[in-house]
Amino acid sequence: MRPNIDIDWAIHGRIKDYAEANGMNLSEAYAEGLEAGLKALETQDQQ
Q: Is the pLDDT confidence value at 32 over 90?
């Protein structure tokens, strides 16, 4: 189940720009961004 969350328009715009620049659809771009963010958070926790 996907959460129903509010995403800041500035973040959505950045994801949309990223998707367009890399030939992705929005779902792919959001998934990739979330994965990268989670990896960064996990790395922070290990320090």
A: yes
Dihedral of alpha carbons 24, 29, 32, 33, sign = positive
**What is the spatial distance between Cα 4 and Cα 23, in angstroms, rounded to a whole number?**
26
- Report the alpha-carbon distance of residue 47 to residue 29 in Å, rounded: 28
Whether pTM > 0.90 for this model: the answer is no
Query: What's the pLDDT at 23?
Result: 98
What six digits make up the tokens of 37? 């963010």
CA atoms of 3 and 42, how far apart (whole Å): 21
